[in-house]
Structures are given as C-alpha cells and as structure tokens.
Amino acid sequence: MKKQRPSFYRNEEEHRVWEESRQQWLSFRPVEMERDFVRLHQWMHESHVIPFWRLNIAAEKYREYLRKSLSDPHHELHVGMIDGEPMSYWETYWAEDDTVGTRYEAHPEDQGVHLLIGPPAYLGQGYAAIMLRAITAQLFTYEGTEKVVAEPDIRNDKMIHIFKKCGYEFQREIDLPDKRAALLYCTRETLERSYT
Predict the structure, then answer these.
(1) Nearest-CA neighbor of 69 among 19, 33, 96?
(2) What is the pLDDT of residues 4-30, one digit of tens each?
C-alpha cells in the first residue's frame, strides 16, 4: 500500500526563491485545472516539447490526462514562474511509487522530477538550470530524501546536460514504458557542488 506523502509546499501557497545572480524571483505553485489548462495544452504543442512529452493531443484528451494527473496523490504538478510569469511545467514524484522505482534500488524517500520550459522565448537563457536547482533544493528540505532522480529521454542531450550541470550524475540507460532514458541521481552534496 502506497503511503501518504507530505506536500511539496508544506504550508505555503507557492514556493518562492530569490535568485541573486539574476535579481529575479523564481517561484512554483500548484497546477490548477481551470487556471492552467489552456496554457499547458499550448505548451505541449511547442516543437521543442513534442518529441519528449508526446502530449500534443486534442484538448479533450489532454484535459482527461491532466485531470487524472491532478488526482494522483503520489506526485504533484507545478507551474514554474520567473517574476510571477508562468514559463515552465514541473512534476515531482516519489520514485518508489513510480515506474522508475522498479528500475533501480529505490530508497523509500527518493523523489523525482520532470520538467519542460513552455514559451520558446525562455529557451537558451539559463532558466532551466536555475529553476531545476531551486526545485531540487526544495525537494531536499524533506529530511528523509537522500536523492532526487531524473530519467530524461536518452535523445534529449540538452536536458541531460542541464541535469548534470545541476548536480545530477548519470548512472546508466534504462528502459521505461514510453522511452529509453538516462537515469540520473542528485544528492545534497552534488547539488551543493553544482553552485560553484
């Protein structure tokens, strides 16, 4: 039986971090169906997103996918923002409760992360890395978490590079139901080293 897990937000409505190097606020808030559906459906149709998420589907089908995802208690969906402007989509999850947890020796408190940058204007600006560090640091505020895992598509060289830049270390290639993936781990120590 899967256990109930604490929320990413603890008792916050959104999680905010000041990024000194850019003089900008980075923030994450929970996805809300009515507030975010149109935006997320549009992002899933961006040419840089389609090959790796493959959710460029009709609105009704995406609405059903999002409804199911929002009702799953073992992961959380987030909108990432720069100075309050939505620009990314994130999923955080408990690895033990996910398919990836069957592909390595998962610790019961390991967490995982998926992400995409939506608007093309935010690509190539370094935002993925600073946002990934911020969300990973928040996942590590849960004391029991020893590592955060990621499993980007093995063809997604840019995303693998970003994960490595943020302290995620390549372990091996793995097969998942929807892709061949790079399994990466991040620990508190490797995250901390990535800031230097």
Answers:
(1) 33
(2) 566 787 667 889 999 999 999 999 999
Gap between the Cα atoms of 123 and 119, Å rounded: 8
SS3 for 117?
Answer: strand
88 close to 117: Cβ distance less than 8 angstroms = yes
Q: Which residues contact 131 (CB under 8 A, 6 or more apart)?
A: 26, 80, 82, 88, 90, 115
Mean pLDDT by 10 residues, the chain (196 residues): 64 86 95 97 97 96 97 93 97 92 92 97 95 96 94 96 98 94 97 92
pTM (global) more than 0.90: yes
Domains defined along the chain, listed by start:
15-194 (3.40.630.30)
Cα–Cα nearest to 40, from 26, 16, 59? 59
Q: What is the DSSP string of the chain?
A: -PPP---TTTT-SSEEEEETTTTEEEEEEE--HHHHHHHHHHHTTSTTTHHHH-----HHHHHHHHHHHHH-TTEEEEEEEETTEEEEEEEEEEGGGSGGGGTTT--TT-EEEEEEE-SGGGTTSSHHHHHHHHHHHHHTTSTT---EEE--BTT-HHHHHHHHHTT-EEEEEEEETTEEEEEEEE-HHHHHHHT-
pLDDT of 1? 42
